[in-house]
Q: What sequence folds into this?
């Protein structure tokens, strides 16, 4: 994953007052394919009750909003 894009996500979280952690993901996300092609890539995971790709998955809309704030802030920084 792209270190610069990961750093932009972390800084966006700090600016928004949203604590972020780091985690390894062994899953074969599309992001890994893009990264392998040299496209700057990073992943932002949100809390999700029961995990993702599960018929019972559920996300709190506040978590969705927090993720959107981080993503938007990082993209604004990344794109200038």
A:
């Amino acid at each position: 994953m792209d270190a610069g894009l990961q750093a932009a996500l972390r800084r966006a979280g700090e600016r928004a007052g949203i604590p972020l952690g780091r985690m390894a993901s062994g899953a074969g996300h599309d992001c890994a394919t893009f990264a392998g092609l040299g496209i700057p890539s990073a992943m932002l995971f949100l809390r999700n009750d029961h995990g993702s790709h599960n018929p019972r998955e559920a996300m709190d809309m506040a978590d969705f909003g927090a993720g959107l704030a981080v993503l938007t802030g990082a993209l604004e920084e990344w794109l200038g």
